[in-house]
Amino acid sequence: MTRRGQRRGRIRVTPLMTAFVTLTSVYSTPVFGRSRSDCLTTTSDSATKARALEKFLASVERKAFKIAQLGLRSEDDALDAVQEAMMKLVQSYSERPADEWKPLFYRILDNTVRDMQRRRTVRGRVMAFLPAWRGEDDDDEYDAIAAAPSHEATPARRLELDEAIDTLERAIETLPARQRQAFLLRNFEELDVAQTAAAMGCSEGSVKTHYFRALEALRARLGDVW
Amino acid sequence: MSGPNRSDIERKADVDQSLGGTLEVRSRDVLAESVARLDGRTLSRLTQARHAALAQLERPQRLWWPGFVPAGAAATVAALAIGLFVMRPDTGGLPLANQGLEALDAELLADVEALELAEADDDLEFYEWAAAEAGAGEMGS
Question: With contact defined as beta carbons under 8 Å apart, do A180 and A71 qualify?
């Protein structure tokens, strides 16, 4: 027996080594308390959430575009607004329950539309002092989807629909923002009163009032049959 | 909302929220048709926007430490490394039988007086003879 530790053949086992072996046997759990199986479960949860988000965004993108377009009266601005709303939803609210995504998304979209309207107003005032400026269109590489023919009805039917769409959209565009929002979310997107209230950031009573006033205004402009 | 203070419009607004009126049905159909007729460019841009948004979920999370490495394995590796450092041989791995001589040599080196004596080769034989004579004298007397 030497003064330090014990000899085990050619290896001198020191108290420090003993302590390490003891610790490794006690603390056999992985770093940060997560096992390998926990990591695999988390990975599959993320994939499930990503698929659910993709399905949701695909289900709302076209109507969202139409709603944004009716507020901004510009297709390009509406596309930008929808993209911005999608980015913000995924970035900041993907962890929320799936049944909250729709009202959240439309709330974000409405805020984005308002911001763009404000910026447009300021830009318009600034540009009024500058000579005419034309921006260049950034299109583009060939896009097979964009080049694909659109769905079209017969010419007569198409003309009839064109007129109906044009008339309705012009009427909706004249509505005050809150009435337009309530009408489109309730009637077009078919949110219930509670969801619409969440999307608009107001009470359910206010939603009903805005919606009722929108209907009255449209009836006055379009008539009951148009 | 309920009670006598409600305005007329609030009461009317409560009457029908079924979305079943003529205007409502027709406007819903017309807007649905408008959406169905979106051109390819718009649909393509919407698809790109969706993919760009979802790409945020796919950004890899870089770990400064691979979390799946068990702490036990890491500690074992560390223990082995320290153990190898501790048990590294100073003299090139002598067999067990010679380790006693190593210890003796070490003690010798630590004993300065003994070292000086060992270095006095010329006087070593004298001291051995003196020790032997002293032992014989004690036995004789």
Answer: yes
B30 has a chain A CB within 8 A of its CB: yes
ipTM over 0.90: no
DSSP class of residue A151 equals: P
Ranges of residues in chain B whose predicted pLDDT is under 70: 1-18, 60-74, 81, 83, 85-125, 127, 135-141
B85: β partners? none
What pLDDT does B68 receive? 55
State in Å, rounded, how far the first CA of chain A is from the last one.
Answer: 106
pTM value is 0.60
Residue type, A53: L
Reported as a single tens digit per residue, the pLDDT across A137-180 is 444 555 665 555 555 567 787 788 888 899 999 999 999 999 99
Strand partners, A6: A13
User: Tokens in use for A79?
Assistant: 């596309």
Alpha-carbon distance B105 to nearest alpha carbon in chain A (angstroms): 16
Give the whole-angstrom CA distance, residue B59 versus residue A108. 23
A window 62-101, beta carbon within 8 A of B: 62-63, 65-66, 75, 79, 82-83, 86-87, 89-91, 94
Q: Helical H runs in chain A?
A: 15-26, 36-72, 75-93, 101-127, 144-147, 155-173, 177-183, 193-200, 204-222
pLDDT confidence tier of residue A40, bands split at 50, 70 and 90: low
- Residue A53, phi then psi, degrees to nearest 5: -65, -40
Distance of CA B37 to the CA centre of its chain: 56
> What span, in angstroms and rounded, lies between the C-alpha atoms of A109 and A184?
13
CA dist B4 and B14 (Å) reads 14
